[in-house]
Amino acid sequence: MINFLIARSFVSQACQRRSRLGFLHPNASHIFNSFSSVVKSSESAKPKQKKVHESSTVSYLMNSCGISPKLAFEVSKKVNLKDPDNPTLILNLFKSYGFSNSQISKIVIKHPSVLLTQENILLPKLKFFESIGFSRSEIPELLTYNIRLLVWSLRNRIIPGYEGLKSVIGDNHEMHTIISKRKGWHFLHYDVKNLAPNLKVLRELGVPKSSLNVLLNRFTSAASVDHAKFVEHVKFAKEIGVNPFRVTFIYSIHALSMTKKSTWESKLDIYERCGWSRLSEEMFLEKFVFRFQESAPELLNIYLDQLKHSPEALKSSSV
């Protein structure tokens, strides 16, 4: 009897739920099914729309930028050209400044989002390079080999960096010579505010101008380190006997900027135990500064102990 009443209660509740759904709408089930089909249809349409955009982007990159089908497909993964108007405007701006088709292709492949850049962002950059002495025949090569100039902010990075380096170089002709090189704008990767005080320290020591140019052109990172650390590097290079009138001094500063002072001191102790004097260390630095790595002491032990070579033989070696 009890089981019969429980079963009857369940049937009654089920009927009530069904009647409430029916009260909401007589075709509720039909509406739900229709809604589900609409959702599925819209979801299935999304991949199709994406493929359409990808296809149009690939076609534009091939036809307007001269990029091969394979590369165009790869580049299309990084940029979505929904509207060709702005990309065409940018391409025409490049062409008006003398960019060749191959140069435009290289730029778009390396930095495809340039096609989405607004004209009022790109044009002032082009005019700036003209204002500092680059001709319209030089600007295309400059930007092709310095793609980051198209990415960096003109107001917040390019102009402040240029003015900072110019305050150090002084001479306009020399400044133009530096920034005209393929890697001439490498200094923008670093904080140029330290350049002036750091170079002042070297000038006061009598470091030749040719050595300063090596520091600026090849070792900008070493020239841009925190001023207090730079002074420490200069002091330590002097302490180990490196001649500031030779370019070796610049190499030493560069190596010091990449190595802790404690590491250098431990290595120099090993060299002294091998029989080198401070003057000999300068000769060693001149030959091996770019190999002054963590394994140097171990290599010395192999050279001197296992191979039985003398310190004098290593100093005179051409390796």
From TrEMBL:
What Gene Ontology molecular-function terms does this entry list? nucleic acid binding
Say if the entry is tagged with keyword Transcription.
yes
Keyword terms of this UniProt record: Transcription, Transcription regulation, Transcription termination, Transit peptide
In terms of InterPro entries, this protein maps to: MTERF, MTERF_sf
Domain of life of the native organism = Eukaryota
Q: Does the keyword Zinc apply?
A: no
Q: Which GO terms describe its biological process?
A: DNA-templated transcription termination
**Gene3D superfamilies linked:** Transcription termination factor 3, mitochondrial
Q: Which family does it belong to?
A: Belongs to the mTERF family.
Q: What is the protein's name according to its record?
A: Uncharacterized protein
> What organism is the protein native to?
Acacia crassicarpa
